[in-house]
Amino acid sequence: MQSYKVPSSQVPGHSYITRHPDFKDGSQGQEYKDITTLWDLFQHEVTVFSKREFLGVRTFDPPTGRTGSYQWITTTEAGDIVEDFGSGLDHIYSKYAPECPAATPGQQPLAICVPNRVEWLLAEFAAFRSRRYSVGISDGVDIENAEMAINNSESAVVVCSMDKIPRMLNRIRMTPSIKVVISMDNLDCSRPTISTQPFSAESVAELRRQAESLGVVLLDMADVVDMGREKPTDANPPKPSDISTICYTSGTLAAKKGAICTHNSNVFASKCAYFSGRLSDSTYLSFVPLSCCSERNTVYALMYEHCRIGMFSGTPENLIDDFQQLSPTVFLTDPTLLNKVYDKAAAATIHAPGMVGAMARYAYSSKLQIFKRGGGTKHAFWDKILFSKVAQIFGGRVRTIYCGGTALIPEVHDFFRIALSCDLLQGYGQTETFGCGVLQLATDTTTGNIGVPMPGVDMRLRSIPDMNLSATSPICPKGELMIRGKCLFSGYLKLPENSKNLMDDEGWMATDDIARFNEDGTISIIGRMKNSFKTARFCWVAPESMELMYSAHPLVHNIFVHGTPDERDLIAIVSPEREPFIQWAQKYLTRDTSSSTAKETTAYKEICSNEAVCNALVDELRNIAIKNNLQSRAYIAAVHCDPTPFESSNGELFTSTRKLRRNVAAEYYKNEISKLFAELDNSEAPVNLK
């Protein structure tokens, strides 16, 4: 058993309690007991690891339009900047926002809206210096959600990149709480900057005039640092019970909610992650948004034993170049990046034709067998002559990858374990737990699970009678996943009733996720309660697990599985992998359609709308369902092929953490969905069901 099963812990309607195998009493022990706030953690990094490279950034050269090598701020320099910027913030709040409302007396919010940059962390730690708390706003959210977060938190001071300022000033009436805007980029254009935005002295002067006319104070971080250096203030460190941050939920099903996290819960969560891996002297590439709690929790966890944190250069197109410049030893990602790299890397190795492919498949199979027997992932011969090229994609030094957000396809999971000779650990957490929860052990050689509870966290299942899921089943119990631990949030900002409904009297939080306790002691997520639905055939469907299964098919780029209680069958919206789909579709097309212009955009749209092609794709999906032992009632009966990837929907279909907004997708494709169901209703039998 990979996890520890607490004896005599099963009660009616609930499973037994499961814990980390090395922390059976449910505590975290006494290690690092003196670190009780995130300010303590920062001081630990600065003092214990003084003068070490800490925060790295690639500078941008406007004349050439190129991004350079990584430049580093040391821990000592970071400590000085945080002291000066924190002192400057004291003066700013005292002068311009003395009565700034807050979620708790004696504290004030500092909103941070920017892509991942060293200034993000410096600003947050500077806020902690005087008991302020951060309000993380994802750079990728739409303007309405950003304004919602600012208004909900009543933030008077906002730190952002210069490219956000024009939009913020143009819509300042929508965020009346804003008094001060602090630009991370220098407003003095003669100073160096990391911004890739083409700002000139004239455009900055116009921003200053506009801000003044609106009664908004516009400064840059250098101004605030100078202010604090000239007139230093005494630090007022936070207490463990103080708020550390407001993290906004991804909003897959409803409006975003601000989860209130305290220093006590954040430190506990960071220790959960640290004790799970104990990585030291790491180099970390930060590209998952820092507004996302799992990204910050990973950064905090790595700070216990020092870590160089390099920020990505700001654009997805340059991400692989960032990897190769930094050569990180560890990073956090969702499956999107790994799936994209897998498609190309596998095509050049294990899926390649001829002798190259044959050798790669033999090498891969050999390494995989050794790994599954517990022999590790390294192989001196095959790694040197074959897999080193794949490893170089990520810089050649990766030791650990953390993957979360959605489940990882088993084939992709094993491929990167073998090709990179690293630990690829799937995990699970929520905003309400600050990204803490479940993580695979480094010794786990299996796929299809998210691991075991992190140190100090309790997990159990609650039966769901309506779905015929029993948490007390003696073999692989299933039910709603419940979590208990000091990592839990303190409630939703200004939503006390929502917070109360989430927790029971014994401190258990309902996650809304449907899970299974596996026989080996690991946990698997098999669905989401609010997304699960029953069809008119009385078949319960967990669409996420089906979408993950179908996404493994080389023809599928995106897929949205949909059904309703009024319809017998399931339908799907599929955005294909363009080139493989075009090649595959040729055998189902007429000669005119499969002409030499088939790869042009117009022809691709015609292929996607071709009835024979869509029916053939239904057959492909049905074969996957049969292979995975799905009930025939859960087969996809009809599809609509959208030539446009879901990612091109102007951010409508995905949350900032790349989860599909199912209600938005249903509205976005409502005409196509209605047409598919109408065609199925008018047919004598469900389409393509045999």
Structure description:
The protein is α/β, with parallel strands linked by helices and 690 residues long. The protein has 3 domains: 4-29 and 334-528, Luciferase, Domain 3 (Luciferase, domain 3, Roll), CATH 2.30.38.10; 38-299, ANL, N-terminal domain (Rossmann fold), CATH 3.40.50.12780; 533-682, ANL, C-terminal domain (GMP Synthetase, Chain A, domain 3), CATH 3.30.300. Helix content is 36%, strand content 20%. The protein has 21 helices and 27 strands. The strands form 6 sheets. Strands 4-3-13-12-14-15-16-17-18 form a 9-stranded mixed sheet, with helices on both faces. A 7-stranded mixed sheet has the order 9-8-7-5-6-10-11, with helices on both faces. It has a 4-stranded antiparallel sheet with strand order 19-20-21-22. Strand 25 (556-562) and strand 26 (570-576) form a beta hairpin. Helix 1 packs antiparallel against helix 2 (75-96), helix 2 crosses helix 3 (118-129) and helix 2 (75-96) packs across helix 7 (221-230).
